UniProtKB/TrEMBL annotation:
It comes from the Bacteria. It comes from Roseicyclus persicicus. InterPro entries: UPF0178. This is UPF0178 protein HCU73_15800. Belongs to the UPF0178 family.
C-alpha cells in the first residue's frame, strides 16, 4: 500500500499512474477532503484538523511492505520506525541511515527561524518538472522493490 501525506503533495497524479500500473492500493490522508480518482485502488481518509492528525493516521498504518510519501521529516521517522519505506515528493528515499541527519537539520533550521521573528525567509525551492520526473522514477523503483 502507498500511504500519501496528501494535503500539500504535488505528485498525486504520478502516484496514481504508478499505482494503477502495478495494482497497488493508495490511501490519501489529509486534514480535509481532497478530490481524487473514483477508482477501487484509491481511498481517502479525512483525519480532521487537529495538530498532526493526518500524521498520526499515516504512522499507525505504516508497516513493512508499505510506502509512505511525505515531505514531513518527523512523520518519515515514525514511518521508518514502523518498518515502512519513505519517499519525499522530490524522489529522495529517506532511510534509517539518513533520517537522523534530516531531523537534526530540521531542528537546527527551526531554531534559526525562531531567532528571526518578523523577517521573511525563503521556503523550499520551487517544484520543477525535473523534480516530478525524479519522483516518478524513484517511485517506480520503490514499488518494484516492494513487489519483489
Amino acid at each position: 500500500m502507498i500511504l500519501v501525506d496528501a494535503d500539500a503533495c504535488p505528485v498525486k497524479e504520478e502516484i496514481y499512474t504508478v499505482a494503477f500500473r502495478h495494482g497497488l492500493p493508495v490511501r490519501l490522508v489529509a486534514g480535509s477532503y481532497l478530490r481524487h480518482p473514483d477508482h477501487p485502488l484509491i481511498s481517502m481518509t479525512v483525519a480532521g484538523d487537529a495538530f498532526d492528525a493526518a500524521d498520526d493516521v499515516i504512522a499507525e498504518a505504516a508497516a513493512p511492505g508499505s510506502l509512505v510519501i511525505t515531505a514531513d521529516v518527523p512523520l518519515a521517522d515514525r514511518a521508518l520506525k514502523a518498518g515502512a519505506q519513505v519517499l519525499t515528493p522530490r524522489g529522495e528515499a529517506l532511510t534509517p541511515q539518513n533520517i537522523g541527519g534530516k531531523l537534526a537539520t530540521r531542528d537546527l533550521l527551526a531554531d534559526l527561524r525562531g531567532g528571526l521573528e518578523g523577517q521573511t525567509l525563503g521556503g523550499p525551492r520551487p517544484f520543477t518538472k525535473s523534480d516530478r520526473s525524479t519522483f516518478a522514477q524513484a517511485l517506480e523503483r520503490a514499488v518494484r522493490g516492494i513487489k519483489a
